[in-house]
Structure formats: C-alpha cells, structure tokens
C-alpha cells in the first residue's frame, strides 16, 4: 500500500525485504555528510549494516522506502532506543562483527577501521537524551530526490507514526558538517540538544 504519492510520480511505502540491498546503497551514496561516499569504502555494505540494517530487521514497521525510478531513499526509526540497543547487542552486532572479523580488518582503510571499531564497541545513546526523547530516526534520499519536499513529507509520516505508537519524543544524530540537514530539521521543529566536533544531536517532543 502506498502511504504517500507525489504529483511527480514518487511513492513512499512500507519497507519490503527486497529493498534491503538498494537501501544499503542509499546509505553509502549519502554517507559522507550527505554526499556520495561510494568511492571512500571498499566494504560497500558496511555503512548500511550499521545505520540501516538494524532498523529494517528489528523495526520494519517504522521503516519507509521512497521509490523514484527504483529505490531512492528511506526514513527509519526505532520506537524505544534503549530496548532497541539491547536487542542489537544480542542479535545484530555479533553477526556483523563475525562477518567483518573474517575479512582481515587490518587491511581496511581508515574509515573502515573506524566503522569496525564501532561494530566492536557500538556506542549507546546518552541516557539524558533517551529519557526525554526515547525514539530516534534516520532519513537519507538520493541526490535526485532531494529538494522537492519529499524529505519533509517522509519526516511527517515517521513523526506521526511514532506519535501513534505512543512515543513522547524523538532525537537524531547528524554529522557536524551537514549544515543542510540542520536547516531541514530545524524547520521541522527540532532543536539542538548537544554538539561535538563530529556529531550534533537534535530532539523534538511529540
Ligand atoms: C536532508 C534531506 C533528508 C532533506 O530532504 P529534502 O527532500 O531534500 O528536503 P525538502 O525538500 O523536503 O525540504 C524541507 C525543508 O527543508 C529546507 N531545506 C531542504 N534542503 C535545504 C538546503 N539545502 N538548504 C536550506 N534549506 C533546505 C527546504 O527549503 C524546506 O523548507 P520549507 O518547508 O520551508 O519549504 C535530504 O536532502 C537528504 O537526504 N540529504 C542527503 C542525506 C542527508 O544529509 N541526510 C540527513 C543526515 S542527518
């Protein structure tokens, strides 16, 4: 069932398992602070397995796919960040770690080594944000789909779905260099909760 239909022909629907490889590609194609990161990684699925796979696997009902001549974007959320993290520590990270441990991580490039460290020791989101904003989300659209109101419509869909499921607030992390995303989230009502050199955290009460 299509959840959103745009006049220009794009649709947003619930995630389907066949979308997974293409959604991992969207993650890579937007993985350098919103810009294409395909040339930066030899391990092409690694970013997707960290930032997309967990949601598709454990929160498929909060995973939405954009279709624009094929898969062109996603919006993903976790309703309860704490229990999501607990599930991933038992059922996701061990599998991903096993996969990459068997691929000679000493030969990874520096970016891949950073991701490998992340998989070895996945950071937990600070309690101070999770208590007030228990849900979190990600959104990424391929360049061809950007700047046409699609991101905003997908965010409103995710926020409404989280609200319906009883969430009292949502937070997100964004790359410190992604000023475009900061403007985008601010226009949707998010406020800055915290920032460091790498990542800014924003939140919205629902
Ligand atoms: C960030 C992103 C999700 C925004 O989605 P989008 O479809 O391009 O944005 P929209 O067209 O829906 O714009 C919504 C609002 O944000 C504003 N906005 C979007 N891009 C902007 C930009 N580059 N500069 C200033 N404002 C911008 C729009 O003007 C619009 O404002 P309005 O509601 O007042 O008209 C999308 O561009 C994207 O996926 N970028 C690459 C990946 C990325 O950076 N993801 C976020 C990681 S944290």
Automatic annotation (TrEMBL):
Q: Could you tell me which Pfam families the record lists for this protein?
A: Acetyltransf_1
One annotated GO molecular function is: acyltransferase activity, transferring groups other than amino-acyl groups
Matching entries from CDD domains are given as: NAT_SF
| All residue ranges annotated as the N-acetyltransferase domain in the record | 79-206
Q: Signal peptide: which range, if any?
A: none
UniProt cross-references to SUPFAM superfamilies, sorted A to Z: Acyl-CoA N-acyltransferases (Nat)
Protein's name according to its UniProt entry: Unannotated protein
Organism for this UniProt entry = freshwater metagenome
Q: What is the lineage of its organism?
A: unclassified sequences, metagenomes, ecological metagenomes
């Amino acid at each position: 069932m299509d959840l959103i239909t745009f006049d220009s022909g794009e649709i947003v629907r619930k995630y389907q398992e066949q979308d997974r490889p293409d959604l991992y590609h969207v993650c890579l194609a937007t993985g350098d602070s919103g810009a294409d990161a395909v040339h930066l990684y030899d391990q092409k699925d690694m970013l997707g397995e960290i930032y997309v796979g967990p949601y598709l696997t454990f929160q498929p009902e909060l995973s939405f796919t954009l279709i624009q001549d094929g898969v062109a974007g996603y919006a993903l959320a976790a309703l309860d960040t704490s229990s999501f993290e607990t599930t991933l520590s038992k059922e996701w990270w061990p599998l991903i770690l096993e996969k990459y441990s068997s691929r000679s991580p000493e030969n990874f490039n520096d970016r891949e080594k950073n991701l490998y460290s992340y998989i070895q020791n996945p950071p937990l989101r600070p309690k101070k944000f999770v208590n007030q904003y228990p849900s979190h989300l990600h959104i990424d659209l391929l360049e061809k789909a950007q700047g046409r109101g699609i991101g905003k419509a997908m965010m409103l869909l995710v926020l409404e779905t989280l609200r319906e499921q009883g969430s009292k607030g949502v937070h997100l992390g964004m790359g410190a260099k992604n000023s475009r995303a900061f403007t985008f989230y601010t226009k949707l009502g998010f406020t800055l909760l915290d920032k460091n050199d790498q990542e800014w955290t924003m939140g919205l009460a629902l």
